[in-house]
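Quick one, tokens below:
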């Protein structure tokens, strides 16, 4: 299993009633069943989230966080839900200093101090309560995942690989219940049937008593016990006081298309910043994945990250100049940093105030045209890998994204939410407000750059949703220790293009093949109509749904 063959020749799925796209066929099918039983896009999305917790625990789960965007077709309105958790009340910058941790020596990524309150359980319940069809109960929505966990399922190929690659976090001595996610102490093989009775019971309690069942009582006590026994400080009050936040989505207009993202503490603003910068260049004329095109995109992404890494923080705790960052004037100013001949080596965040004006992503569109763009994650594979007694899920390690630099907006503080990587997206027609697509690309800091690449594949180069996901990608990574940007190029980008980029001063790794392709994210797309065929010439669309699912994962899109 060291190599993952990559021969995608998938057609986009086309349908007229409802459509689901996720990284696991069993989960996709469950979402479709919910739609057929009268549920709407949100009901189906939560059912998919639960099913993916069962089938891909090395990527996602109820011990992590979630975000969603909901497109209300009747009102042509977009709603946002921030289901991310906060740091424990007792976890302070001063406490970490007492333990010998600082910016130069942060807690190890898997340390229990990095567990923030899991927001997914409340996010699922609140999404259904706020935006669901009201035709299905939480019990009906969770029942397919409960049955999947009880009866067992054969583990898919890509999931099995990542489960095995990260099995050591479940086998550590302090993680006494890690064995609950193993078979005879080992990760399951491709095709081996795995059951998770503990997780089924967790879902049953959530179905019976709502989110209170997770944040109080047996489950909460088990969470606190495993965290504190491994050096963390979360307590029962931290869990009991957790709330989901309804948020106003942020948006930018790119050539008549409105791209919508969750505001900070989510990093969706990075994608909007990049698009605003790219609007100052004729990228279509450069040609898809040419050296000129990739150079401009890479530079725009680097500049956007330079801003996001500083400004993206919890707006409840620090002022985030979102409107100023998204001003077109600011983007024009930042675009001047791009030298078309040379890669920029050193980049600092801008000052918009002084300028004038390891994750699963899935999406559902229902027969009424409502869309739910949903993302759920543990962060790094299994998160911390810590499994609460009798619960069947691992706890996230989102706190690893806090800064320990005292003057940083994202500096760790009590009850603060960290910079968050997971981001769902929606696109609408700027004139009519009609839905164009619900999409996302999961995968850490790859996500905003994945959003930009697949969106431009459709809008600028006329690719259908499946082609847009199949196309080879780049991934920009910033290495803080050496203060250098590394560019990873996926197999499929020609060697001569790589050499041209090298001549411009980019430090890159090429080609990336096999299972290492996971660094380029795994996306899902559902579009309403075939607007990508004629964008800029004709805006009219139709009611056919087109869907694609990333071949870098096990999943698929299905419709009816």
């Amino acid at each position: 299993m060291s190599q993952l063959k990559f021969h995608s020749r998938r057609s986009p799925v086309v349908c007229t009633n409802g459509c689901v796209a996720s990284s696991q066929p069993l989960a996709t099918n469950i979402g479709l069943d919910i739609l057929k039983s009268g549920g709407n896009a949100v009901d189906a999305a939560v059912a998919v989230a639960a099913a993916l917790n069962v089938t891909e625990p090395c990527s996602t789960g109820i011990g992590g966080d979630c975000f969603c965007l909901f497109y209300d077709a009747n009102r042509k309105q977009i709603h946002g839900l921030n289901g991310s958790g906060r740091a424990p009340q007792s976890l302070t910058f001063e406490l970490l200093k007492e333990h010998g941790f600082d910016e130069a020596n942060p807690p190890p990524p898997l340390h229990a101090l990095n567990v923030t309150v899991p927001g997914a359980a409340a996010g699922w319940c609140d999404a259904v309560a706020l935006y669901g069809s009201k035709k299905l109960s939480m019990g009906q929505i969770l029942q397919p995942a409960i049955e999947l966990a009880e009866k067992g399922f054969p583990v898919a190929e890509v999931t099995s690989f990542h489960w095995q690659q990260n099995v050591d976090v479940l086998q550590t001595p302090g993680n006494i219940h890690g064995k609950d996610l193993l078979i005879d102490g080992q990760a399951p093989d491709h095709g081996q049937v795995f059951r998770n009775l503990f997780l089924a019971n967790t879902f049953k309690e959530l179905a019976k008593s709502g989110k209170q069942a997770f944040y109080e009582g047996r489950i909460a006590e088990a969470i606190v016990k495993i965290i504190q026994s491994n050096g963390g400080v979360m307590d029962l009050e931290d869990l009991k006081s957790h709330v989901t936040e309804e948020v106003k989505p942020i948006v930018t207009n790119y050539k008549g298309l409105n791209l919508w993202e969750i505001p900070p503490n989510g990093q969706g603003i990075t994608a909007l910043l990049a698009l605003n910068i790219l609007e100052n260049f004729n990228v279509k004329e450069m040609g898809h994945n040419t050296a000129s095109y990739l150079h401009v995109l890479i530079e725009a992404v680097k500049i956007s990250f330079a801003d996001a890494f500083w400004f993206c923080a919890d707006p409840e705790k620090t002022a985030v100049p979102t409107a100023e960052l998204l001003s077109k004037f600011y983007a024009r100013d930042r675009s001047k940093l791009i030298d078309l001949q040379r890669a920029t080596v050193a980049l600092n965040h801008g000052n918009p105030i002084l300028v004038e004006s390891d994750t699963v992503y899935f999406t559902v569109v229902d027969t009424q045209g409502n869309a739910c763009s949903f993302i759920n994650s543990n962060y790094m594979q299994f998160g911390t890998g810590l499994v609460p007694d009798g619960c069947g899920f691992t706890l996230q390690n989102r706190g690893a994204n806090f800064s320990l630099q005292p003057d940083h907006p994202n500096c760790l503080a009590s009850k603060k939410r960290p910079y968050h990587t997971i981001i769902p997206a929606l696109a609408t027609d700027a004139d009519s407000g009609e839905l164009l697509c619900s999409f996302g690309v999961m995968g850490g800091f790859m996500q905003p750059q994945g959003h930009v690449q697949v969106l431009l594949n459709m809008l600028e180069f006329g690719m259908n949703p499946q082609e847009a996901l199949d196309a080879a990608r780049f991934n920009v990574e910033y290495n803080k220790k050496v203060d250098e940007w590394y560019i990873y190029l996926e197999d499929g980008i020609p060697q001569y293009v790589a050499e041209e980029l090298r001549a411009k001063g980019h430090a890159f790794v090429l080609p990336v093949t096999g299972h290492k392709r996971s660094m380029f994210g795994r996306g899902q797309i559902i579009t309403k109509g075939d607007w990508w065929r004629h964008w800029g010439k004709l805006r009219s669309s139709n009611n056919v749904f087109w869907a694609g699912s990333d071949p870098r994962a096990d999943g698929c899109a299905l419709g009816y």
